[in-house]
């Protein structure tokens, strides 16, 4: 079965979208043609803007997973919308450079956004009696707490790793000490220096831990 693609200009499905755009819509600008094909396919690389925190990210899909409590369907829909929005921005920039353009996809979508600023296009509206509506409203509020929790978790892991490393180095200090020396004394100046430096760093980490209020 052949895969069809929806034309964003006439909303009809075609097997060969690029040929349709050339023959039916008479698109001669190669860059305009490429961007409209990307709008339909969604195969666009580069940075995308997060609709929740307005950050430009290379892996927006991973950002949704770790920092926003979204379902799989919501992540897929919002990722598609972010890609389409990026293509519309590129089309608007191309139009501003005054090349010959026949399509007006970026202008049409901009007008729709002005008419319905609270309802993003290509994202289904949430019914008024939908029980999931209160959850959707609190998603943006939990973004900051999730980010803070992730940072605290990483700091805690670093502290545990450093403490374990300090214990291993102290054990190595006694294991490497020659038998003719008193137990606990080593002739390795480098190990002493590393251990002293690690002790200072561990104290600094513990002090930082108490100031960020991990618990």
From TrEMBL:
Region named Disordered: 111-143
Protein's recorded name: Uncharacterized protein
